Automatic annotation (TrEMBL):
Record key words, sorted: Hydrolase, Metal-binding, Zinc
Gene name in the database record: cdd
PROSITE patterns from the UniProt entry: CYT_DCMP_DEAMINASES_1, CYT_DCMP_DEAMINASES_2
CDD domains found in the cross-reference section: cytidine_deaminase
Enzyme superclass (EC): hydrolase
Record protein name field: Cytidine deaminase
Any Pfam family hit: dCMP_cyt_deam_1
Biological source species: Rickettsia bellii str. RML Mogi
Length: 145
């Protein structure tokens, strides 16, 4: 048995369990849809986020953006993220919304993975961010000439 492969597998299971536990911290009194995200940067540093709803719906924040925006306060480098994991309480794969995909396109490396998990952790699907939002607005698209 390859110890490193076994050990890394155990670490990944632990990370998924922690991510699943973060669903308990989600604030979703209106939709009841709880979402948690784990963003991992190029140095392996982990940043968690959960969705937070508000009575004025547009004022809420998705878990993916919560994790990524929150990472800035801890010195994370925008554009350096290698993967983001997403889980919800719906026990199916929940895809990120368009706003989250746009933010991910700027925070994640272009070859970074977006990994979706079912609540029971039995189903998982992985995408490259560049495949999920090929026409993302980039900073250079809005810079003055």
């Amino acid at each position: 048995m390859d110890f490193n492969k076994w050990f890394n597998g155990k670490i990944n299971i632990m990370k998924k369990e922690i991510l699943k536990e973060k669903l308990n911290y989600s604030y979703a009194p209106f939709s009841k849809v709880k979402v948690a995200a784990l963003a991992i940067d190029k140095n392996g540093k982990e940043y968690y986020g959960v969705n937070c709803e508000n009575a004025a719906y547009p004022s809420g924040l998705c878990a993916e953006r919560s994790a990524l925006f929150g990472s800035v306060a801890y010195g994370a480098e925008v554009g350096s993220f290698q993967e983001i994991h997403i889980i919800s309480n719906l026990n199916k794969l929940l895809y990120p919304c368009g706003a989250c995909l746009q933010v991910m396109s700027q925070f994640l490396d272009k070859n970074a993975k977006v990994i979706l998990h079912s609540t029971d952790l039995l189903e998982e699907k992985s995408f490259l961010i560049k495949d999920l939002i090929p026409g993302a607005v980039k900073p250079e698209d809005i810079m003055p000439l």
